[in-house]
């Protein structure tokens, strides 16, 4: 089938089945363009809980679709490619969390949304990069265990009054963005501001003018007085930034900052997934119930 035909078929099947397509900000451009909603994991989690559709096609990585399923257990949550995982989420198991809780008894565990459903079920509270500071600051504890991203953990410690004990995980895509990249881009575009994601290394965060989640970048771009912005995160976000702000210029800090897992989703796979209603996210009821408690805290904070 030609691309145009696939898109027509996706639209037809979506209507016939009462399905909704959600896409993460890091998805390929053409997937963002056919989606009903594009956003970060917090926005998409909220959306999945609020929409009435019986079928959600989640275009993103596995943990994001799991989060949608936990918040909407009665809906069928489909993923175009079940192998689209997140290396950061896969760095930590539920057993690791149980062990760390035993070792550091009495401390609460805050889990970044980039974790498996099983890890969320063992954690006290979840957060995203958009609300990590607010979630951590809302807790009465002085010391917090934060998993799995060490860079986001450091960023939260810098901006909250808490001592953070962090897991030593990282996102390989964000860690690959270097200070050298930032300096090179600043030389090319001296008027540009640098906006970095909190999953970036500390030296990149220090060199940045602003540290923002993808959802915050989307919200801030139209309000910012600057005309040129160097973006230090996965390059999928550039599509929406450019589309929604045609008068501004956005440059990737490193054009190789590409998450291969995010790009596993294709139009053909979305079509097949809608047609066959497979692959589907299936989670144990016990995991859903436990993880939901941690996620409910997350969706309270913007
Ligand atoms: O929360 C998300 O969706 C992720 C993984 C990054 C971001 O900043 O949007």
Based on secondary structure, the structural category is alpha/beta
CATH topology of the largest domain: Rossmann fold
Number of strands: 12
Shape: globular
**What would you say the CATH architecture of the largest domain is?**
3-Layer(aba) Sandwich
Bound molecules: (~{Z})-2-methylbut-2-enedioic acid
User: Considering the protein shown, what is the CATH homologous superfamily of the largest domain?
Assistant: NadA-like
What is the share of helical residues? 40-55%
Multimer state: single chain
SSE string, helix = H, strand = E?
Answer: HEHEHEHEHEHEHEHEHHEHEHEHEHH
Radius of gyration equals 19 Å
Side by side, the strands of the main sheet go 2-1-3-4
Q: Please tell me the total number of domains.
A: 3
CATH class of the largest domain: Alpha Beta
Distance between the termini: 41 Å
Number of helices: 15
Poorly predicted runs are none
In brief, what are we looking at here?
This protein is 45% helix and 16% strand. The chain is of the alpha/beta class and 302 residues long.
Detailed description of the structure:
The structure is a single chain. The protein has 302 residues and is an alpha/beta fold. It has three domains: 3-85 and 262-282, NadA-like (Rossmann fold), CATH 3.40.50; 88-171 and 288-299, Rossmann fold (3-Layer(aba) Sandwich), CATH 3.40.50.10800; 177-252, Rossmann fold (3-Layer(aba) Sandwich), CATH 3.40.50. Helices cover 45% and strands 16% of the residues. The protein is built from 15 helices and twelve strands. Strands 2-1-3-4 form a four-stranded parallel sheet, sandwiched between helices. It has a four-stranded parallel sheet with strand order 6-5-7-8. Helix 3 packs parallel to helix 4 (62-71). The chain is globular, with a radius of gyration of 19 Å. The mean pLDDT is 96. The chain binds (~{Z})-2-methylbut-2-enedioic acid (CIZ). (~{Z})-2-methylbut-2-enedioic acid (CIZ) is lined by residues 24-25, 40-42, 113-114, 128-129, 197, 213-215.
